[in-house]
Amino acid sequence: MPTDSTSARSPFDASSERVERVLCFTAHPDDIDFGAAGTIAAWTAAGVEVSYCIMTDGDAGGFDPADRERITELRVEEQRRAAALVGVTDIHYLHELDGYLEPTHGVIKQVVKLIRQIRPDIVLTMHPERNWDRLQKSHPDHLAAGEAVTRAVYPAVENPFAYPELAAEGLAAYKLPWLWFISSPDARENHFVDVSDQVEAKLDAIRVHASQHPDIAGMERVVRRMMLANGERAGLPAGTSAEAFHVVSVNGSSTIAGF
């Protein structure tokens, strides 16, 4: 398991929490690699089963006009290769249009269905709140992904009467323990994971998404600098690289039904 530095505000104690399955929802191919590939690499190395659900095909991404006709196929292949570098092979797609993702009941139902199928200990997704300090974190699809997953996690996933057709298919209600957010406003981040040993794996995964990076060297400098800044904010030793999360306890020892 990754080494965690947890502020007093975080409800998650990595030394005592047992994590066996994680399900990650992001808006586009490459979002998960920027946000959490280091943590995911550490999880899979420790035997945790990690699955991805990419909610759009990333069809509006890229910079080269020559890629337009094959951009969806290209980005799916990039995500497959990047995921494999951090130990993930189970990848799902919702096939929503890039730039048009909305937290509709059609999308939420698909999220509920996948969570009930996989029954993870942690659902990881993008933050539904806009980040005014770094607006690029808050692409409208990112916000929509976070909102759709949050609405799915509570109350629909654990409500046996929500989307009853799913229960009829044998997908029973499920109480999710933890919800983790990436791309969070800094003020919301309450949990930091030391990924110093996974920095190169994370960067290798990001580099695979070459269709999205007109300046790979510049991208690497920014990512390294941000991870070091996260380590400093977490109070970790100088030179430590970290990934930052907003962790929410959904169902734990302090929660009761309906509250």
Automatic annotation (TrEMBL):
User: Which domain of life does the UniProt lineage start with?
Assistant: Bacteria
**Entry's PANTHER family?**
LMBE FAMILY PROTEIN, N-ACETYLGLUCOSAMINYL-PHOSPHATIDYLINOSITOL DE-N-ACETYLASE-RELATED
Tell me one GO biological process term: glycoside metabolic process
Q: Which InterPro entries does the UniProt entry name for this protein? A: GlcNAc_PI_deacetylase-related, LmbE-like_dom_sf
Q: Which Pfam families match?
A: PIG-L (PF02585)
* Keywords recorded for this protein, A-Z: Zinc
Lineage runs: Bacteria, Bacillati, Actinomycetota, Actinomycetes, Micrococcales
**Where are the coiled-coil regions?**
none
Spell out the protein name for this chain.
Answer: GlcNAc-PI de-N-acetylase
Which Gene3D superfamilies has this protein been placed in? LmbE-like
Gene Ontology MF terms: hydrolase activity, acting on carbon-nitrogen (but not peptide) bonds, in linear amides
